[in-house]
Amino acid sequence: MIDSHAHIYLKQFDEDRDEVVGRALDNGITRILMPNVDHETIEIMFEAEMKYPESCMAMMGLHPCSVDRHFERALYEVESWLGSREFVAIGEIGTDLYWDRTYWGQQQEAFKIQMAWGAERDLPVVIHCRESIDETIELAESLQLSAYKGVFHCFTGTLEQARKITGMGFHLGIGGVATFKNGNLDEVLKEIPLDRILLETDSPYLAPVPHRGKRNEPAFVRLVAEKIAGVRTVGLDEVIAETTQNCQRLFGIK
Questions:
Q1: Residue 128, annotated ligand binder?
Q2: What percent of the chain has pLDDT over 70?
Q3: Sheet holding 56-58, edge to edge
């Protein structure tokens, strides 16, 4: 299995990061893909990648919650890093209207710029869209989609939204929310082809049942796979095999 989205470099793991990575390996997680947030997370993300080179792979991008009136300065640093070494993806990027719309214009501009970088470098984009799925779909539709590939991470939307996203060629990142009673993702998991689905945790956030409310970690991605298998009435091995292949194809990893 591959956890396609985990922030295991954050301080929530400082006391037991070795054990967390060990539990992931024990549960069959061969790769942990780490999205960047902003300039404050770059070095600690690199440290995790260097310490666990067989497991952890870094992305590079500017998270929408870190976009403000000075976002061009932050994007300059992201672009500089993209030109200096290899990354598995550009991310995480996107939009976020959970708090307010203060920097909505800047978020849209940062999103378009980073999407263009993905196309130029033939890298997948990892898209965040909290409380802004429709707006992000509309933004993506306004771009030359044949040049883009990636995933709408932590998908929590409707079947109609899922079909629009996959119809554009993107994948859906499915995590712990799928296991919540109020997650409302069963219909999506039944109807969307398995070859459009990636497993993720978004660790340390959004832990699946029965760990809801606690710190999430990559080992729990197995619980997400079990949920998908149950909803689709297929074997767990089938879900694991296909979602792993999806990740390998999208991110160009083994």
A1: yes
A2: 100
A3: 2-3, 31-34, 56-58
Query: Distance (Å, rounded) from C-alpha 101 to C-alpha 113?
Result: 19
92 marked as part of a ligand binding site:
yes
pLDDT digits (tens, 9 = 90+) for 93-132: 999 999 889 999 999 999 999 999 999 999 999 999 999 9
User: Is residue 5 marked as binding?
Assistant: yes
For domain 2-251, give the fold.
TIM Barrel (3.20.20)
Domain boundaries, the chain: 2-251
Q: Is the pTM value of this prediction over 0.85?
A: yes
Nearest to 171 by CA among 81, 188, 184, 179: 188
Contact 220, 200 (CB under 8 A): no
Provide the Cα torsion 248, 122, 33, 184; round to 10°.
-80
Annotated binding residue 202: yes
39 DSSP assignment:
T
